[in-house]
Amino acid sequence: MTAIAESGFDTSAFEALLNDRTAEPKWLSQRRRDSWKAFEQTAWPNGKEEEWMRTDIRLFKLDKFSSAPAAQPGSAAALLSHGVELGGRIESTNGRTDLSELDADLAEQGVIFGGLSQVAIEHSDAVEKAFARGVVSPTYDRFAMLNDACWTGGVFLQVPKGVHIEKPLHAISRLGGEGAADLSKTVVVLGDGAEATLLMETLSEDAIAAGLHNGTIEIVLGRGAKLRFVSLQNWNNRTWHFAHQKACVGREAQLQWTIGALGARLAKVNQQVALVGPDAEAQVNGVMFTQGKQHLCYNTHQHHEAAYCRSDLLYKAALQDQSRTVWRGMIKVDEAGQRTDAYQRNDNLMLSKDARADSIPGLEIEADDVRCTHGSTSGRVDDHQIFYAMARGFTRQEAVRMIVTGFFQQVFDRITIDSVREALGEAIGARVQDLPNQ
Amino acid sequence: MNDFHSVGPTTDFPDPSSQLVEVDEIAVVLIHAAGHFYALDDVCTHDGGPLSDGDLCVEEATPTIACPRHGAQFALADGAAVTMPATKATQAHEVKVEGGQVYVRLCDSHANTRK
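Structure tokens for the assembled complex are given below, as produced in the milestone run.
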């Protein structure tokens, strides 16, 4: 394999990347070149833009990172697949696929599941068709342009019409080495009436190496399709995490999308759900736990483009130390979205007086026959609850852990996959410190 | 206790000026005013604005720097919030000049929470 430039994402590194991928179809190489050109002509977002006003990336230096392959495949243990019988799995390190497996009976039914780089070569038409949908705009901002030009990793899942995948599919992305980067695209396409469960997670090989993730997720659900999608972001706290994620939910289709956000030095994620066909339904669950100086920013968007659709979003965050979360949520209902039923809620549990949570819900409604509601709460742990628990024999830390777990229970109850519920509960429980006097 | 980090030669910081510097992955505004150097977290405690983009007010009895977004002012000496809408101090850090170089040492609260 040709070595990619040692550091940075300059023109020579980009040309080296293309030289390393000569097997890719021509349409894809051209698309990369177009996006690279746009990237070179565009500035990074800045704090004067509303979307970036609360997320400071002035210390982000792209030239500190490299998309070079890892010296060896990562081995950090997955959390979501523990004890789960899988129908297929993909493992990757620094945006390169190390392992790709799919049950033979699923492959025979026409299911495509594999690392995007390989699938783009073997099923070029399917990938080209998926990219042409433009679910996530490759020119949305400079991060999207960089991703579209330089992606190496990611997952492609296509389930044909009427095929039900009973066993969950699992994909894990690891980052290893100082300055490692993971630029990936995940594409999920479910045909009419298809069903699947996809568990995705990210991990860093060690706790101190600085890393970069710049990714996109694009989901398209056909009529009556059902997808349970879990995305657990568990990078170390020196990783920059930028992502654009969008699902288009078709007529009578159902999406349950669960996000776990535990890691990253700074995360900026745009998560959109577009209900594009009548009677579509989406449930979005978010679990965030921050500590140290972490800064996690999630912008969510529920877009009702058709009538009789339902969306229900619940994001819960617990914050320790001097960490900060920003949640900006928008419910947008087009004029065609009559009889919409939409809800969004964000709850924040402040475990430190120095933590900060910005919660900004919003509604933009053009239809005149809808039910759209939103809510937000932020508060500290009730001292009386701690006293009550300690009076019954719990230590202070056990009491805090119990209260934090109880805080998240509402969102855990909505997660229908046992391994996900347990992994999130354990990961959060391990992070809870004793509560400082407030 | 944290170590001092060099942020550049004194000639990089004319008097008066304020400039963003990175110290151990923390955004710090380094201010040179009336012959003194100051270092504060480069963040307004009201709305997160970048203080390094704000104006210096060095003529007052208490020299301050103003947030460019809503005008909150912070004392250069200790980061105290002097005017609304900020009500909470931004973190001040120790500065020293040696051999023509400016050094900044982060306050301990940063060391305790960087994980």
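The two ends of chain B are 16 Å apart (CA to CA). Residues 5-107 of chain B form a domain with the Rieske Iron-sulfur Protein fold (CATH 2.102.10.10). Further analysis is deferred to the final report.
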